Amino acid sequence: MRPSISIVIPVLNEAGQIAVQLQALQALREQCQLIVVDGGSDDGSTVLAAPLADKLLHGPRGRAKQMNLGAAEADGECLLFLHVDTRLPADAVTVIHQVVAEGYRWGRFDVAFDSPQPVFKLIALMMNWRSRLTGIATGDQALFVTRQAFAEVGGFPDIALMEDIAISAKLKKLGRPCCIGSRVVTSARRWQQYGVLPTILLMWRLRLAYFFGADPNDLALRYYGRS
């Protein structure tokens, strides 16, 4: 039987995270398909992922490219794109079934961070409210979309950064997203590594630059080139 939901997880050198993520998803394999798309890892990520996924795909590096490849190989009627360091709520599959049955064609979850620091509660609150106001979903919020709607918008634009914002803008033309109150829990590791305030300021600058037409490839160099 075709699974109702295909969960697509793009990976690049995530040996420290991938096994824990996939172990947490094993209980869903009776009703969901787990697809890991590797973008050229050299740290053993694929060895760890292989026995825990329904499909392990290899493709060119780039989150948009990897997620599009996973979607092309998916069997589910609905696609759920999940970051390797983001955990789904226990009711994720049930809620997605419900909202799709109600007529929603795409949506996302509220987000929380895995840090007890108050600043991360504030950041999550701002992210969730911004998403509700704008109808834009970020990758950390576990975006889901019906197979048909994904095909209608042509999948993720093949850009190096801001692919989540770009596809949200396209999907909004098909209808508003369902903003699910159940929370995914995502890692605060990158915020902690680079500093909360510098990361906030950088993301604001990058989003503003993207809004005014900056090349996503240049923005990716600024984002991934942090030291």
From TrEMBL:
Protein name in the entry: TIGR04283 family arsenosugar biosynthesis glycosyltransferase
Gene3D superfamilies attached to this UniProt entry: Spore Coat Polysaccharide Biosynthesis Protein SpsA, Chain A (3.90.550.10)
Glycosyltransferase 2-like domain sequence ranges: 6-118
Organism of derivation: Methylomonas aurea
InterPro entries from the UniProt entry: Glyco_trans_2-like (IPR001173), Nucleotide-diphossugar_trans (IPR029044), Trfase_2_rSAM/seldom_assoc (IPR026461)
Compartments in which it is found: Cell membrane
Entry keywords, A to Z: Cell membrane, Glycosyltransferase, Membrane, Transferase
